[in-house]
Design brief:
The structure holds two protein chains of two kinds. By secondary structure, chain A is of the alpha/beta class. Chain A contains eight helices and nine strands. The chains are: A alpha/beta, B mainly alpha. Chains A and B meet through helix 3, helix 5 and helix 6 of A and helix 8 and helix 9 of B.
Amino acid sequence: MEPSTQSATVTPTMVTRMNDSVSAPALSFNGVSMVYPDGTHALSETTFDVRPGEFVTVVGPSGCGKSTLLKIASGLNAPTTGSVTVDRKKVGYVFQDATLLQWRNVQHNVELLAELAGVPKAERAQRATDAINMVGLAGFERKYPKQLSGGMKMRASLARTLVLGPSMFLFDEPFGAVDEITRERLNDEVISLFERQRFAALFITHSISEAVFLSTKVMVMSARPGRIVASFDIPFSYPRVPDLRFEPEFARISGEISHALRGAHA
Amino acid sequence: MSDLHNPFIVPGEDAGDVEHHILDAAPPTPRSKFQWSTVIGPFITFVLFLVFWQYMHESGMRTLFDKPGFMLPSPVTVVDQAFLTAKARGKLIDGLGWTALVASIGLGITIVLGMTLAMIMARAKWAEHAVYPYLVALQATPVLAIVPVIAAVFPNGVGPRLFVCVMISIFPVASNTLFGLLSADKGQHDLFTLSGASRFTRLRKLQLPAAMPAIFTGFRISAGLSVIGAVVGEQFFRSGGMPGIGIVIEEYRQKIRFPQIYGGLVLVAALGIAVFLFFGWLTKVVVGHWHESTR
C-alpha cells in the first residue's frame, strides 16, 4: 500500500470549493507529535490543514490516536512537538458521549456554553431555542437527559455546540454509540447544518460510510503511533441526499478507503 | 380517523405528534403509582415485632435469659404507662423535643463542617491525604475514650453534647460529599475546561450539582447518627439544662421504671425514622427529577 495522497476525479463543484479554500486555514497542524507521559507514542509527525468549507474526516483503527488529534486541536492537550494554529474561541467540540449535565433539562443544557461565556440570559435563551429547532428537538426543551434516547441526547449535545456559532467544529466519534438507523439520521442532520453554515470540520470516526457521506476529504490514520498514511478527496457535491450511500461511486471510494485502512492496520 | 388507512401511522397514535416519527423512541417516563406491598411489608414486620415483644415479656425473658418478665414490660403496659399517663408522656415528649433541637443544631454544624472539609479535599489530592485519615480516625474513636478530654475542654452546657453529636455524624457527610464532588465525568470536565471556566464556576455549576445525590445520601445517614449522637451525648453530659430524652431515660433507669424507659426508646426510634423519612423525601424533591436511583 503506497501511502501517497490519492485524488479522485475533479467535478465542477469541487473546483469552486477549492477556489474558496484559498482562504487561511481554520485549523493547521504542523509536524505535530504526541508522546504521553507514560511513554505511549500516540501521534507522529502529523501535518494537515482544515480550511473553511472543508469537512475533513479521520478514519483509523481504534486506539490509533484519533482522539488525541482532537484533544490537541482543541487545546485540551499540548503536543509534545510541532505546532497547532487555531482560533480557540471559534472552536466547537462535539464529544464522544453527549456529556449533558443530568440535572439540567434540554433547554438549560443547550444554554450552558453561552452561560459560561457570559452571554446575557435573554439572548442565550433565544439562541438555545434556535439551536434546538435546528437539530429537530423542539418540544423536548423541558425533558431531562434520563428521559431522552441516545440519539436525542446527541442532538442536544449538537445544539449545545451550535449555540456559540463556532466556525471550526471538532467531532470526536460523536455517533459511535448510537444504532445504525439513528446514526444515518444524525449524519443527515450534520450534513444539512454543514450545507447551511459551511463551517470547517474535523470529524473522527471508524465508520467508512459515515466518513465518505459527510466529508470533502477523508484521511486514513495508521495504528500507533498514529500517522496519516492516505488522503482521499470526496468528489460528491452538496447538498448530499441519503441515497448517495447506494451510488456505485460511493461504494468504489469506500472500497479504496477500506483497502488503505487495511494497509495501515498491518 | 382517516389515519387508520395510512400504513405509516400506527392506529391510535396521535398523527399530529410529528416528533415521534422523526426521532428514535425516547425511554418511557416511569410513573410512580401506589403499591400495596410498600404498606403490607412494614405492617407484617411490625405485627411480628409486637408478637415477639409480648412473647419475650411473658416467657422469653425467663426461659432464655433467666430474667424476670417485668424487666421487659408488655407493649400494652409501655403504651399505658409511658404514653397514656400524662406526667410521663409530658416528660418524655419534652425530652424528645430537646434532643431533636440538639440533634438539629449538631446536624447543621456537621453539614457545614463536613461539606467544607469535602470541598477542601476535592481541590487537591494532597489535601485529601492530609485530612481524610483523621476523619476515619475520628469515626473509629469511641466517645467514651475521649469523654474526659471533652469535659475538660468544654464549659458546662450543650457544648459537649453538640461535640459528641458532630463527632459521631460528620463522616458520612464529608465522605459522601467528597465522593460526589469527584463523580462528574471526564467529558463534562473537558467541556468546562474548553469553556475556560474558573475553579469556582466548575464547583458551582458542575461538581456541586453532580454531587447532590451523594450529598443527600450523606445527609440522610448523618441525620440518623446525629440523633444517636445527641442521645449518647446526654448520657455523658447531663448538666447544663435542656434535659433531653437520654437524660429523662437515665432518670427513669435510676428509679427502675421499665415501662417509661422503653417508652423513651420507642420515641427515640420514632424520631430516627422520622428524620430518615424526611431526608428521603427531601432527596426526592431536590434531585428526584433528574437522578434515577432515588427512592
